[in-house]
From TrEMBL:
It holds the Pfam family TauE. It is a multi-pass membrane protein. The chain crosses the membrane at residues 12-30, 42-68, 80-99, 105-125, 137-163, 175-193, 200-218, 230-248. It comes from the Bacteria. It is found in: Cell membrane. PANTHER family: MEMBRANE TRANSPORTER PROTEIN, TRANSMEMBRANE PROTEIN YFCA. This is Probable membrane transporter protein. GO terms for cellular component: plasma membrane. Belongs to the 4-toluene sulfonate uptake permease (TSUP) (TC 2.A.102) family. It comes from Enhydrobacter aerosaccus. The lineage of its organism: Bacteria, Pseudomonadati, Pseudomonadota, Alphaproteobacteria, Hyphomicrobiales. Keywords: Cell membrane, Membrane, Transmembrane, Transmembrane helix, Transport.
Length: 254
């Protein structure tokens, strides 16, 4: 079993992946977001872009499965339905891009998305336009294609859902439910098309307990200590550094 795990990660990749997953779990525990965005660019470098998508999305899917029963009563299905359907319909296009585009381009793209998302969050920018089924479907389609190509489909959905005046319980429920409705299908599509192998899923099984441990520790260590804004800014700073590394990695390692 140990030799199989070493095969899954390779020597340096194992410890790096464990460390990144632990930090991602801590972020999930104290800030509530950002775990996928932290793991995606680094896992793409370690394991390849297609393997990264399955590993990251599988880890996030288990978290969604845990949270969905707690939040489903608060979900706004009128908003979620067109968004989720459009996301699922756009996923094959994203998988095609995942299979066609080289790893370096994927890492650069996901890193750019992360940096742009952090800058918008820091600036306080919010979507001010109206919300409708057509706009929600457009957001979902962009998110679905991004999720399939980079595993990071959250930014457009987060920025759109958080633009309204919904209470925090509804926002949380909508975000969790959206991922619950879309992540399983993405894993099925990527594995069924042969773009990524089953090793990527096995890797997620190995890493998931580390994610849970990190999330538990993050919640215990940081809950009720300091301000929510501080935790959010720490998480955003970590994401910004990760995204910047992905963008500048060719210069940093040369």
């Amino acid at each position: 079993m140990l030799s199989y795990i070493q095969h899954l990660f390779a020597e340096v990749g194992l410890w790096t992946a464990l460390g990144v997953t632990l930090v991602a779990g801590l972020m999930r525990g104290f800030a509530g977001f950002g775990s996928a965005m932290l793991m995606a660019p680094i896992f793409a470098i370690l394991f390849g872009s297609a393997e990264m998508v399955v590993t990251v999305v599988a880890i996030e899917l288990v978290v969604s499965l845990q949270l969905f029963p707690q939040v489903r009563a608060h979900a706004d299905w009128k908003t979620l339905a067109p968004m989720s359907i459009a996301a699922c319909l756009a996923m094959p296009l994203g998988v095609w891009a995942l299979a066609s585009v080289d790893k370096g381009t994927i890492v650069t793209a996901v890193s750019a998305v992360i940096v742009a998302f952090v800058v918008m969050m820091w600036s306080g920018w919010r979507y001010r336009g109206r919300r409708s089924a057509a706009i929600g479907a457009t957001v979902g389609a962009v998110s679905g294609a991004m999720m399939a190509t980079t595993s990071v489909g959250g930014p457009p959905v987060l920025l759109y859902l958080l633009s309204g005046n919904d209470p925090p319980a509804v926002n949380r429920a909508n975000i969790v439910t959206y991922y619950f409705l879309t992540q399983f299908l993405l894993i099925v599509i990527v594995l069924a098309t042969g773009v990524a192998g089953w090793d990527a899923l096995a890797r997620a099984i190995v890493l998931f307990p580390v994610m849970i441990a990190g999330a538990y520790a993050g919640g215990k260590l940081f809950h009720g200590v300091g301000s929510e804004r501080l935790y959010r800014n720490v998480a955003l700073a970590i994401l910004f550094a990760t995204g910047l590394f992905g963008l500048l990695r060719n210069f940093l390692v040369s």
